[in-house]
UniProtKB/TrEMBL annotation:
The keyword Membrane applies. The chain crosses the membrane at residues 38-58, 64-85. It is found in: Membrane. GO terms for cellular component: membrane. Keywords: Membrane, Transmembrane, Transmembrane helix. Its main location: membrane. This is DoxX family protein. It is a multi-pass membrane protein.
Amino acid sequence: MSTSARKKIERGIAIACSFSKTCPILILPTAFRIRPRLTIVAAIGAVILMVCAGIFHIARGEGAVISVNIIFALLAVIAAWGRYLKAPIR
């Protein structure tokens, strides 16, 4: 397997792992109406986690992969804003 193919696979795995960790914590509390305010807390936690992950990647010289962290952080900010201000669930 070539190096470029291996890097593409590793990047795909990183994206899948980030997606599988971030989405359930943002969706499940609201979907099941079990303390829907937890969605806001989870979104803020996801933003903090993605900022720390971006700093970690930059420190290791992996600046090319922080785009994934930025995208997930933005999605979490939108989820927090949406559930807190735009369409809160009571």
